[in-house]
Amino acid sequence: MGSSRNGRRAGRLAALLALPAALGLSSVPVLADPSPPPGEVAPDRLSGAGQDGVALLRVVVPDQAGVDRLNSMGVDLAEYKKPVDGGFEVHAVLSPREAQGLRDLGFDVGGAISDQADVAENATERRAAIALAAGAAEETDRLTPLRAEWFTSLDGQRFLSVEVKSSATDAQTVLTVTWDSGEGTGPDSGGTATMSRFTDAGQYMYHRFNSPLSVTAAPTRATVTSSRGGSVTVPVTKWLGAPRKAPGRHYVADFVDHYMDPTEVTGRITALAREFPRISQIVDLPYRTNGYRRAAQAQFGAAPASTFHVSSKAYGSEGGNDVSLALVRPETASGALSVSVNGKDVVVTLATDGSAAVSSTARQVVAALNADAAASALLSAATYRGDAGGGVVAAAPATRLTDSLKAPDSVSRDPFQVKALRIGKKRDGSKTGVFLYCQEHAREWVTPLVCVETAERLLRNYARDGRTRKVVDDLDIFIMPTVNPDGAHYSMYDYNFQRRNMTNHCAAEAADPARRNSWGVDLNRNFSVGSVFDGYSGASTNCTSDTFAGPAELSEPEARNEVWLTRQYPNIRFAMNTHSYGGYFMWPPGAYKAAGREVLPRVDYGTESFFWDASGHILSAVQSWRGTAIWPGRTGPVPDVLYSAAGNSADEHWYGRGVIGWDFEVGADLYDPATKQFRAVGFQPDFAEGHEEAMEFASGQIGILEIARAFAGDRDRPRSDLKVTGRTGTSATFTFTTDEPANVHYTLDGSRPTLSSPKLAAAGMREGAQQLTVGRTTEVRWFAVDIAGNVERGYRPDGHGDGYRRQRVEVGDPR
C-alpha cells in the first residue's frame, strides 16, 4: 500500500522546511544541472543530481496521532509501522534537510535503513547477472556432473540423487534427468524428472532435486539434458551415507536471478506464453501508458525573481532534446528584447537600457518566448514556481534542453503496452478467475519478481506436478507483473525512490526541472472507491505529492487497465496486490475519512472469517520457503494494521465488483539473534535478500491459488449451532458457531429467515462473533451460508420451505 513523499511537500512540508528566499545570492548565468535557485531551498533530493543524500530513515512517534501528523504533512512514509518502547517506529524517505527539519519540529528521526550506495551495488550485481545470462544464451551450455548416487533408507526404499552444474547460470535454464532401471535396461526405463535450480544468497550454485527421488530399482546410468542444448551421461554409484528423509513431491522453483526492469519482465512473460501455448496466452491491456519519456528542459537564472525555465513541446526522445536556447546580451544601448529561431536553436536577444546594461526581466523573457510563433512551437516558458519574475536575467550561452532520462536504448520511450499472462487449461471464463498483480509502486523492485516466479512455477511444473496441474486446470489465472512500467523504469535508471508513474499533471509553474522527481500519480490512490475526492484520507490532490491521486479518479491508463481486466473477465473472484515492504497481509476496507475515522463498510463477519481462515493457509505457504512468519499484528484489514489509503485498488475490486482481494507487503523484518532485534529490509534490499522475498511470496501466491481452487470446488454445506452464553431472570444472551467461515442470517420475531434478514456480525474490530441478547423467551430461526454460496441443509432462503434451523432461547430458569 501507499506512502507519501514530498507530497503536500510543495505546500505543507516545503513550507515547514524551506529557508528564506532573500539570501543576497550572487548571479549565476546558467544552471547546467537544473537545480533550484540558491535563493530558495527546495527539498534536497531535488537539487544537484536530483537525489543526493536521500535515504530511508527511522522515525519514532509517541502514538498513532504522530503517524497521522506525519502523513498529513506529506512526509514520504513507507508501508511500515511497528510498536516500540515509547510509541511507534515508522520509516520515511527523507533528504538530509527534510530530516533536520523534522528534528527541529521535535520528531525523533533516527538512522538510515538504506541509501543511495545500496542502489549502486544492486545495479552492479544486476549488470553482471544480465551479462552472464546473455553470454550463456548465445551457445550450448556445458554440463559438469557433480554427484549421481542411489541409496536406500529406512525400510530399504531406494532413492536417486543427482547434482549437475550448468555453464548457463541464468534462471531460465532447465535441466532434465532420465535414468535406467538397472544393468541392461533402457536409458529412460527408470523414469524422468526436472531438476531444481539451487541458489545461495541469490547466486547460482548447481541443479539438483529438492528431495531425492523414489525409484523402484537401482539405476546404473543417468543422462542430464539442458534446455540450452547441453547433455551429459554419468554413472550412478551407490552411496553409503546416512539415511535421508523421504522426499516430498518433486517440484521446480527458483527462476529469478536479478532485479528486472519492466521491459525484461514483459519479455519474460511473453516468452513463457510462446513456450506454453496450450495452457497460457498473453492479454494485451487496452490502455497504453504515457511512456518512459519527458519533455526536455533547461533552467536559467540565480535568484527566484530572475529565474525561469523552458520545456520542449515535443518529448525529449521525439526531438525535444535537440532544442537549444541562448540568452544574448547585445553590445548596443537601448536595445529591444527579441526572439529568433534557426531550426531548433532559439536565441533571445535581451533588452538593454541607455547604459547598455541588460534590462529584461524573467517575466518579460517568458512572455516573449511564449508569444513568438516559431519559438512557442518548440518550447514553452514559465517563471520559477509562480514567482512574479521581476528580476533581471543574465546572458547565457546556448544550452541544450534535456529530458535527463538515463535508461539504455533497450528501454523504449514510447507508450508501454502492458501485458498480463493468462494461465489455465480452459480459458473461456467458465473457471474461477484469480488476478495476481505487482509493482503498482515503481520503487518496489522485488514485487515483479514475485509475479514472474509464480508464473514460471505454474507453467514449468504443470506437466510433472499433480498439485500444480490441478490448480492450472481448475482456475483461470491472470498475472500482471508490472502495473507501473514507466515509473519502474524511472526508478531503476533515474531515481530509485520513484513511487508513482511518470505522467506530469503539474502546471508549468510547478514543473521546473528541479522537480523532475516529484511528478506522477500514485496509482494505488487513483481508483474510484473511497478516494480522496470522496473525502477519504491517505492521498493528496497536490501534483508534487508522492500520494498524488491524479486529477480525477481513474485518470491513469495503468489504473484503468486493472478495472478493465476485472470487468472484461467477470469470472475473476480473487485478487492479490503485491507491494513492499514490511511483511503485511491485508484486505479491505483500506480507507477511512479522518473525521471520526469513518471506515469504508467493513466486510461482513462471514467474509472476515474467510479472510482470516485463508490467511493461515497462505501465510504458511510464505513461511514454507525459509521460515518467515508474518506477524498477527500485521495481518488484517488495511486501516487496522497500517493506515488509510484512499482510492486503493483492493477496495476498487472488492466494493466495485465483489472481488475478494488481499495485499501482500513483501519484505518482512529479519530477526538478528545476536541483538535480539528485528531489522527492516527496505524497498530495494541487496538481491540476495530480494531473491528470498520473491521466492517466499511466490509460494504465498501459490497458496492463494489453492484457496481459490478450494472455493471453486466447494460443494459442502456449512453447519451451525446456537450457543447460549448467558442467562438471567430477565434476559438471555447467545451467539452462533459455524464449522467453516459462513454468514448466519437470523430472525427473532418468528418470521422465516432470508438473505435480507439480519446477519451475525463481529463483536468489534478483530474480535469474534457478537453476542445477541433477548429480553423474553424467543424462538430464534436461522440458517448459515458459506462464502461459496452453499446453504445449510440445502435450505432455499428465496423460496417458501421451512428447512431453516430453529431453537427456543429461554429467559429465566429453563427448568
Description of the molecule:
This protein is α+β, with helices and mostly antiparallel strands. The chain has 5 domains: 9-118, 2-Layer Sandwich (Alpha-Beta Plaits); 137-238, Immunoglobulin-like (Sandwich); 295-400; 437-711, Aminopeptidase; 720-809, Immunoglobulin-like. It is 23% helix and 28% strand. An 8-stranded mixed beta sheet has the order 16-24-26-25-27-32-28-31, sandwiched between helices. Strands 1-17-18-22 form a 4-stranded antiparallel beta sheet. A hairpin with a 2-residue loop joins strand 3 (76-84) and strand 4 (87-94). The model is unreliable at 2-12, 15-50 and 242-248 (pLDDT under 50).
Could you say which structural class the secondary elements and strand pairing correspond to? alpha+beta
The first-to-last residue Cα distance is 56 Å
| CATH fold descriptor of the largest domain | Aminopeptidase
Q: How many domains, in number, for the residues?
A: 5
Instruction: Write down how many β-strands occur, each being a DSSP E stretch of 2 or more residues.
Output: 40
- In DSSP terms, counting alpha (H) and pi (I) runs of 4 or more, how many helices? 15
- Beta percentage is 25-35%
Radius of gyration from CA coordinates: 31 Å
CATH class label of the largest domain: Alpha Beta
Largest sheet: 8 strands, mixed
What percent of residues adopt helix (DSSP H or I)?
Answer: 10-25%
Low-confidence stretches: 2-12, 15-50, 242-248
Quick overview of this protein structure:
The chain is of the alpha+beta class. The longest helix has 26 residues.
